[in-house]
Design goal:
The protein has helices spanning 2-9, 14-40, 44-67. With 71 residues, it is mainly α.
Length: 71
C-alpha cells in the first residue's frame, strides 16, 4: 500500500510519514464531514456542526502544509 511504500522510501525520516499520514487522515475526515454538511445531515444543526468541522479540517491541513509539523 501507499503508506508502506512511503515508510520504505522515507524510513530515515519518520516525521515525513507522520505528516503525510495526518494529512491523509484529515482529508478523509474532511470528506466525511462534508458529506454530512451537504447531504446526509438530517437537521440544520447537524449541517452547521459538520460545516464547522470541515472548516477546522481545512485550517489544520493548511497549517500542516505551511509548517510541516506533526501535531
Amino acid at each position: 500500500s501507499m503508506t508502506r511504500y512511503l515508510e520504505i522510501r522515507y524510513s530515515h525520516n519518520s516525521t515525513i510519514i507522520n505528516w503525510i499520514t495526518l494529512k491523509i487522515l484529515l482529508l478523509v475526515l474532511y470528506s466525511g464531514f462534508g458529506t454530512f454538511a451537504l447531504k446526509r445531515g438530517k437537521t440544520k444543526q447537524i449541517h452547521v456542526i459538520n460545516f464547522a468541522l470541515v472548516l477546522l479540517c481545512i485550517g489544520v491541513i493548511f497549517v500542516l502544509a505551511l509548517s510541516k509539523l506533526v501535531l
